[in-house]
Amino acid sequence: MERYSEALRRYAEELAQHHQAYGADEFERLLQSMLQATIRHHGLETMERMSEDTVLKVLRSQVSEVIRLKRLPKLMSRQAQI
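RESULT FIELD:
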């Protein structure tokens, strides 16, 4: 998880610029929650074998899908449950 912290922060700042209803800190918490859920789903060993670029592509794809489906407000309000 630590190895992704800077990349998650940069992506959170990028998202905050495009979706001004939420701040970079909120997006960063969301991305960390999504990363933890992805780790639970795939397993820590599998995630450790994946490159940082691959993991970030997975997260970007998930976020893109959430935005496309207009589920961002609901997901942001339910972050603790992810």
